[in-house]
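Students often ask what a 'structure token' actually looks like in practice. Rather than answer in the abstract, let us consider Raspberry3, a protein of 91 residues. Its sequence is given first.
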Amino acid sequence: MSVHSEAFAKRMAMVGLKPHHRIVLGVSGGPDSMALCVLTAAWKTNNLGNAAQKNEFVDGLLAVVVDHGLRAESKDEAHLVHRRVTSMGLV
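Now compare that with the structural description of the same chain:
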């Protein structure tokens, strides 16, 4: 386990979240929300093993794509983010 994932696991424990809990992440595609997706998926799968991975999806982890609508291209970016989180198993 890397230093970042250990620190992330400690933070999740501090707020009372455990790997078996169901979690919904709001994802806009920015670096913060994408990093949160990567860390949360790794935390769940590393702590639950094969039980976290059902088919190609991370069990109990849902990503909701947020389109802020601040730029003309935001709709296209939201579609790209959806494809990215789907490929990570977060649907």
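One point worth highlighting: The mean pLDDT is 88. Ask yourself how you might have guessed this from the sequence alone, and why that guess would often be unreliable.
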